[in-house]
Amino acid sequence: MKNILSVISSLLLMTSLGFAQKKPKIGIELGSAGVDLNAQSTAQSLANALGASVTYTYDERELAGRIFYEAGIDNQIGYEIGVFRTNSFDATYVSGANRATESYTMYGLDGFATYKFSKDDNGAFVKGGAHWSRVDGNANVRLGSATASVSAYSYGVNLAAGAGYDWNNFRVSWTYYNNIGNDEGADMNFLSVGYKF
């Protein structure tokens, strides 16, 4: 976390000292995030424990948003610093009178080096960097008349990458976050549309 804050501070200092020739902008992105909740594996584990079949439903995608700061040394080479958050991803498991639910919310900070293929403000771009992210989880279980609840979280730093297209301050983009919340295999893909001010 300290390393990411140091990088962010350095980039902001470069901008304030005049190293950034591209006019800084603030942007907002809204779209759909997808994360594999591994619901099938959870359902199988419950079925094995209960000795009965388990039906399940789960969210494959949820609404997500990101706010970012963009600057650069010219119109082609730059950087972004952002914050992001998702709606809750939910899963439900049912076996007779037994029922379990789980929900997960993801949020974090990201930083990217960016490269735009054209020399003006419009055009395709790619980006690579890292993210610090956290996943907050809640689970509720009912076995007959007995109920229980538990909450947990995980967090960590991992790689991120993406690509997109800017046009007249509008943006369409895809961003990939590896191991969101430092949870192995929980990769997040964020498809979004945005606007820069």
Describe the protein's topology.
Blueprint: H1 2-16, E1 22-35, H2 39-50, E2 55-58, E3 61-72, E4 77-86, E5 89-95, E6 98-116, E7 123-143, E8 146-167, E9 170-177, E10 188-196
Descriptive overview:
This protein has about 200 residues and is mainly beta. The chain has a single domain (about 1-195), classed as Porin. The chain is built from two helices and ten strands. The longest helix is centred in the first third of the chain and has 15 residues, at about 1-15.
**CATH class categorisation:** Mainly Beta
Structural class: mainly beta
Total number of beta strands:
10
Number of domains: 1
If strands are numbered along the chain, what order do they take across the biggest sheet?
A: 1-3-4-6-7-8-9-10
How much helical structure, as a percent, in the residues? Answer: 10-25%
CATH topology: Porin
Largest sheet: 8 strands, antiparallel, barrel
- Terminal CA distance reads 28 Å
Question: What's this, in brief?
Answer:
This protein has 197 residues and is mainly beta. The chain is elongated and about 65 Å long.
